[in-house]
Design a protein that fits this description.
Oligomer: single chain
Number of domains: 2
Number of strands: 22
Number of helices: 13
Helix content: 25-40%
Largest sheet: 9 strands, mixed
Distance between the termini: 33 Å
Structural class: alpha+beta
Length: about 375
Amino acid sequence: MKSCLRIPRVLLPEKGFENWAVVSGDRFSTDTAFWEKLNSQVGLEPSLLSAILPEALYPEVGEEDVERVRESMYGALEDGTADKLNRGFIFVRRSTSSGMRRGIVAAVDLEHYTEGRGESSPVRPSEELCSARVARLAALRRGAPLEFPNTVLFYREKHAKLIRALENENLEKLYDFELMGGGGKIEGYYIPEEISEEVIHMLRSRAEPCFAVADGGEALSAAKVCWEELKPSLKEEERRNHPARFALAELVDLYEEGVVLRPAHRVLSEIDAEAFCSFFAGNMPCKRQRTVLYPTASDPVAAIGKTDELIARFLAANGGKVRYTGGDVSAAAAEEDCAAVVLKTVEKEDLFSALKGGKLLPRHTFTLGGEKDGRYCLEGKEISYD
C-alpha cells in the first residue's frame, strides 16, 4: 500500500517555547479563567494563543477574528519567530497524568483520509465528529498561511520496535520545557530525512485503517474540507505537492503504556436532576448513587450511544446543558441542578476492530486523559504558498 505520510519542513520558534506552546482551543471550553490566566502569563511574548482562538473566550468567531489569526501567522513568518527546519519528522516525549507518551510528528496525506460512515481508507476518525467545530476550524484555516494542529493519530505496534529504534538514535534535541497550564514536560528531537524515510517504511501497513484519530479529529477534518475546496483550482501537477494537501499530526502507538483510553462521562447541569434520573433509569438498566447513574449494559459502545440518545431527548424537552469529562464527576453531580452518567469505554484491543468497514464510534467514546493531557499546539507547517 502506498504510504499516506509525507516528510514535512516543520516550523518551530527559535526560543520562548514556554509561551509559544498552547493546549488546543477546544480544551477548557467552559473555563474562561484558565485562558485569561494564560493570556496574562504570556503578555506580549510570541504565542500560539493568538492563533487558536480558544472556544471559552471566542464562542463565535467573526471575520475580524479570522483576519487577526492570519495576521499573527504572517507576522511570525516575517519577523523570524517561526523558523523552518530541514525536512524531517519530530520525535516527541511527553509526560502526562497517565505516564510517558511518545510520538512522531509527521504530515498526513489528506487524499488518504475519509470520514464518512462506510468509507474505508488508511486514515480514519474514531468517533463521530462535531460538524460545528469542523466548520469553525475550517473558517480559521481558509486563507491562513500556517497550521498548528492538535491532531493525534493512533497506530498499532505492540512491541514498540519503532520507538525503541528512535531512542537508540543520536537525535538532535530541539526543545525541552514545561508546558503552560500544567501540561507536563515535553521534549522534541529532530529526525533527519533519511531516518524519516525508514520510519515511513516501518509504519507502512496493509490494514485499514492504518491510523485512527485519537484526539483533534475536527482539526484534521477541517484541513480536509479546505483541501477539497482548493483542489479544483489547481492543475494536476500542482495537486501532487501542494502544502495544503498535507496536515501535521502526532503519531502515537496505541499500546504505549502512557496511552490510557479513559471514558468520557456525561455531566448535566441546569436541569431537574431527580426528573432526569427517573427518566434515564426508566429507559436504560443502570445503578444509581444519588444523582450519579451507572449503566450496566455489557457493550460499552452501545451504552454510550443509548446514553447520548436519552440525554438528547431529555434536554430537547426540558432544557439544560451537557458536558463531557474524563475526571471524577461526584463533585459536579452533588450540585442541586446537576446529574451525571458514568460510562465505560472501548478497550485498546477492540478499538481498531470497531472501526472496520468504515464504522464510527459515538462522539466522546474515549479521551486520552484530562484537559491538560491533550496535545498542545506547538509544531507548525506551511499550508499556503502566499
